[in-house]
Design a protein that fits this description.
Keywords: Calcium, Cell adhesion, Cell membrane, Cleavage on pair of basic residues, Cytoplasm, Glycoprotein, GPI-anchor, Lipoprotein, Membrane, Metal-binding, Repeat, Signal. InterPro entries: Cadherin, Cadherin-like_dom, Cadherin-like_sf, Cadherin_CS, Cadherin_pro_dom. This protein is mainly β. It has six domains: 83 residues, Immunoglobulin-like, CATH 2.60.40; 89 residues, Sandwich (Immunoglobulin-like); 111 residues, Immunoglobulin-like (Sandwich); 91 residues, Cadherins (Immunoglobulin-like); 101 residues, Immunoglobulin-like; 101 residues, Cadherins (Immunoglobulin-like), CATH 2.60.40. The chain has three helices and 53 strands. The strands form 16 sheets. It has a five-stranded mixed sheet with strand order 1-3-10-9-6, with no helix packed on it. The longest helix is centred in the last third of the chain and has 23 residues. The protein starts with 5 loop residues before the first strand and ends with a helix.
C-alpha cells in the first residue's frame, strides 16, 4: 500500500549534506483535476551553503515552485501530462527533480512494476543538458494568442546561448504555429489548434551559441492536442436499407447502423450510443424494432405473428436513428439517419381463382385469346410468391388450347391455338390449375380454390367448301383438241348440317385455256395447250378454281390444279448463227460452226441432221460436216472473191414424224489487210450479179 499522494522511491543514503534535491524522483496519483493553488507536493533542495539566490523552473507553465519548495498549481488543470520536470539553481549548485503522474489503476501494481514506469515513459535516466516534457494543448482555444504552453530547461544554464525550435508547425508547413523564447525556453502556441487536422507535433529543440552553432541537442519535444467534443456523429454509409423475412423469430438481426465521430476514439468524445427516436408506421406495434445501444444492431422485438406482411399497414418501416457521443450522456452531440426496413414476403398464401367456373365463346376456325382467368394472391406482387403459373390439367386431348400468364395482371390468358370445328364438337370443358413460381412454404398447400373450370361454347360459322384433293394434279399431252375434258373437281361443304349447294368458277387461268362447269365441276379446254408457252413452268400449268356455297353470305373455297403437259413434236429446230465472215485470202477455210436447238423435249430434238441445199454454179464452193448431235461445220472448198453469199442449210430433228427447217446462212467474204476486215457492200453486190450470170449460163449449157 502506498501513501495517497506521494510515493517515495529514492532517498538520500546517508546523513551527510549532498548538494541538490534531497529526493529526485516522485510518483503521484493523477487526480480528476489539479485545482488552482492546490499543493501538489513539497520539494527539498539544499546546496549545503544556504541556498543563496535559489530559483525554480517547472516544465509545465501551469505549475510553479515557491521558495519553500511547494509545487503549486497556478490554475485548474485537467491534463498535466505524464511527467513534470523541476529545475533548481542556486549560487553553488543546481539539480533536476522528476514528478511522474500515474493513473489510479497503475498504483495497484507491484512496487517492482511501478519502478519500470520510467523506462515506459521514454524518459532516459542519464544526465541531460536539455530537459523537455510532453506538452498537452486543448484544441479550439480562443484568443488571445500567443499562449504559453510549456517550457524547455537547460541544466547547464543559458548564459551566452539560446534555444532553437524546429519541425512541422514551426519552420515546416504548417509554419508558425509554435515558437520558443530563445532566452527563457518558454514554448508558446500562436493560433487555435484542431486535433482532427493534426493530433500530434514532433518538434526538436537545440541549444546554440550566439553564432547559431549547435551546442546541445537536438532533443525531441512532443506536443499533443487534447481532444474537445467538437464533432457530431455522422452516418456516412447511407442509404441504410435492411430486409427481414415476414414471420421471423423475435430477436432476428435486421441490419447494423454505424456512425463515425471524428473526435478522439480513446475518449468519451467519440464513445457513441444508439437510440431509435421514431418509427413509421407505428402499427401493429409502435416498438417493432430495438437497436443495440453500443453495437448499433437493429433486431425485431415483436412476435412472428405480428411480423405478417399481408396484415401490415405497409411492408416498409422507417426508423429515425440517433447516435450520441459522450456515451449517450445529455451533454453529448448527436447525429441522425433514417433506416428503411423492408418486410420481405414468403410464399405463405396460395393463389385462388376469383370464381370456380369461367365461360368463353369462340367462333369455329378462329384462334387467339378467348378468356382471361383472374386469381387473387395476398403475397408480394414483385416476387415469385405472387406470380402465377397456369396449366390445363384436363379437357385438352387435341392440344387445341394453351394458357399463358399475363405478366402485368397475373391473369391466365386462355387461347385457341388450333381452330375448333363446330361440326365435330360444339362444347369444350377445361380444368385449369394455378400455382406460384416459387414453392409454397411447408405448412401451406394448394387447395380447391387453386383450380377452376372453363366452359367453352363453339359458334357455328359458314365455312367455305373444301376441294378434295387440294392441290389437284393431272397429266395431259399438249395440243389436245379444244373442248377436251381435263378432269372433274370435287369440293364439299364442311357445314354438313346446313345442306348447302356448291357452284364452281374459274379464279385464275393465266393463259385462258380452261373452263369449268358451274354445277358438276368438269374442267375442259377452250384453247390448245402449249407446253412451250411462257405460262408453263417446268412443264406444269397452274390454274385456280373457286367453290362457292349457297350460304348468306356465301363462303368460298379455293382449289389449285396442276396440269403436267407431255411434249409432242410441234416445233421445228432452229439454226444459229445465221451470219459468218471470212477473209478472201484465208488459209483456214473452216468458216463457221453451226448449232441447232429445239423447243421440244427429247426424243423430239437431237440428234439433228444438217444438209446443204443444191449448190448452183459450175463447181461446188462449200460443204458441211457434222461435228456431233447438235453442231456442224461449214467449210469453203476454195478461196472466194469479196462478196456476200447466201447458203441454204436444212436442219431435221429426231421426232416422229421428224420436222425440217431450212435457214439461209449469210456468208460475207471480206478483204483483210493488217488485221482489218473490209466487208463493204459495193463489191458484194457486184460479185452477187456475177454469180447470177454464171448460174444462168450454167442453166443454158444444160439445156443444150
Amino acid at each position: 500500500f502506498f501513501p495517497p499522494q506521494v510515493l517515495l522511491l529514492a532517498c538520500a543514503e546517508d546523513l551527510e549534506c549532498v548538494p541538490g534535491f534531497q529526493q529526485k524522483v516522485f510518483y503521484i496519483e493523477k487526480p480528476s483535476e489539479f485545482t488552482e493553488d492546490q499543493l501538489v507536493l513539497n520539494l527539498k533542495f539544499d546546496d549545503c551553503q544556504g541556498n543563496n539566490k535559489l530559483n525554480f523552473e517547472v516544465s509545465n507553465p501551469d505549475f510553479t515552485v515557491e521558495l519553500d519548495g511547494n509545487l503549486v498549481a497556478l490554475k485548474n488543470v485537467s491534463e498535466a501530462g505524464r511527467a513534470l520536470f523541476v529545475h533548481a539553481r542556486s549560487e553553488h549548485a543546481e539539480d533536476m527533480a522528476e514528478i511522474f503522474i500515474l493513473e489510479a489503476n497503475e498504483k495497484r501494481g507491484a512496487l517492482k512494476e511501478i519502478l519500470k514506469l520510467e523506462g515506459n515513459l521514454g524518459i532516459p535516466r542519464q544526465k541531460r543538458a536539455i530537459l523537455t516534457t510532453p506538452i498537452l494543448i486543448p484544441e479550439n482555444q480562443r484568443p488571445p494568442f500567443p499562449r504559453l504552453v510549456g517550457k524547455v530547461i537547460r541544466s547547464e544554464g543559458t548564459e551566452g546561448v539560446k534555444f532553437r525550435l524546429s519541425g512541422k508547425g514551426v519552420d515546416q508547413d504548417p509554419k508558425g504555429i509554435f515558437r520558443i523564447n530563445e532566452m527563457s525556453g518558454d514554448v508558446s502556441v500562436t493560433r487555435t489548434l484542431d486535433r482532427e487536422a493534426i493530433a500530434n507535433y514532433e518538434l526538436e529543440v537545440e541549444v546554440v551559441d550566439m553564432n547559431g552553432k549547435t551546442i546541445d541537442g537536438p532533443v525531441r519535444l512532443d506536443i499533443s492536442v487534447i481532444d474537445q467534443n467538437d464533432n457530431r456523429p455522422l452516418f456516412k454509409e447511407g442509404p441504410y436499407v435492411g430486409h427481414v423475412m415476414e414471420g421471423s423469430a423475435t430477436g432476428t438481426t435486421v441490419m447494423r447502423m454505424a456512425a463515425f465521430d471524428a473526435d478522439d476514439a480513446s475518449t468519451d468524445n467519440a464513445l457513441l450510443r444508439y437510440n431509435i427516436l421514431r418509427q413509421t408506421p407505428t402499427k401493429p406495434s409502435p416498438n417493432m424494432f430495438y437497436i443495440d445501444p453500443e453495437k448499433g444492431d437493429i433486431v425485431t422485438v415483436v412476435s412472428p405473428a405480428l411480423l405478417d406482411r399481408e396484415t401490415m399497414e405497409s411492408p416498409k418501416y422507417e426508423l429515425v436513428i440517433e447516435a450520441k457521443d459522450m456515451g449517450g450522456l445529455d451533454v453529448g452531440l448527436t447525429g441522425t439517419a433514417t433506416a428503411t426496413i423492408l418486410i420481405d414476403d414468403k410464399n405463405d398464401h396460395a393463389p385462388e381463382f376469383t370464381k370456380k367456373e369461367f365461360q368463353a365463346t369462340v367462333k369455329e376456325g378462329v384462334t387467339g385469346v378467348i378468356v382471361n382467368l383472374t386469381v387473387g394472391d395476398r403475397d408480394d406482387p414483385a416476387t415469385g410468391a405472387w406470380r402465377a403459373v397456369y396449366s390445363i390439367i384436363n379437357g385438352n386431348p387435341g392440344q387445341s388450347f394453351e394458357i399463358h400468364t399475363n405478366p402485368q395482371t397475373n391473369e391466365g390468358m386462355l387461347s385457341v391455338v388450333k381452330p375448333l370445328d363446330y361440326e365435330i364438337s360444339a362444347f369444350h370443358t377445361l380444368l385449369i390449375k394455378v400455382e406460384n413460381e416459387d414453392p409454397l412454404i411447408p405448412d401451406i398447400a394448394y387447395g380447391p380454390s387453386s383450380t377452376a373450370t372453363v366452359q367453352i361454347t363453339v359458334e357455328d360459322v359458314n365455312e367455305g367448301p373444301v376441294f378434295h384433293p387440294n392441290p389437284m394434279a393431272v397429266t395431259k399431252q399438249e395440243n389436245i383438241p379444244v373442248g377436251s375434258v381435263v378432269l372433274t373437281v370435287n369440293a364439299t361443304d364442311p357445314d354438313t348440317l346446313q345442306h348447302q349447294t356448291i357452284r364452281y368458277s374459274v379464279y385464275k387461268d393465266p393463259a385462258g385455256w380452261l373452263e369449268i362447269h358451274p354445277t358438276n365441276g368438269t374442267v375442259g379446254t377452250t384453247a390448245v395447250l402449249d407446253r412451250e408457252s411462257p405460262f408453263v413452268h417446268n412443264n406444269v400449268y397452274t390454274a385456280l378454281f373457286l367453290a362457292i356455297d349457297s350460304g348468306n353470305p356465301p363462303a368460298t373455297g379455293t382449289g389449285t390444279l396442276h396440269i403436267t403437259l407431255e411434249d409432242v413434236n410441234d416445233n421445228v429446230p432452229s439454226l444459229y448463227p445465221t451470219l459468218a465472215k471470212v477473209c478472201d485470202d484465208a488459209k483456214d477455210l473452216r468458216v463457221v460452226v453451226l448449232g441447232a436447238s429445239d423447243k421440244d423435249l427429247h426424243p423430239n430434238t437431237d440428234p439433228f441432221k444438217f444438209e446443204l441445199s443444191k449448190q448452183s454454179g459450175p463447181e461446188k464452193l462449200w460443204r458441211i460436216n457434222r461435228l456431233n448431235n447438235t453442231h456442224a461445220q461449214v467449210i469453203l472448198l476454195q478461196n472466194l472473191k469479196k462478196a456476200n453469199y447466201n447458203i441454204p442449210i436444212s436442219v431435221t430433228d429426231s421426232g416422229k414424224p421428224p420436222l425440217t427447217n431450212t435457214t439461209e446462212l449469210r456468208l460475207q467474204v471480206c478483204t483483210c489487210k493488217k488485221s482489218k476486215m473490209d466487208c463493204s457492200a459495193s463489191d458484194a453486190l457486184h460479185i452477187s450479179l456475177t454469180l447470177i450470170l454464171l448460174s444462168l449460163l450454167s442453166l443454158l449449157c444444160k439445156s443444150f
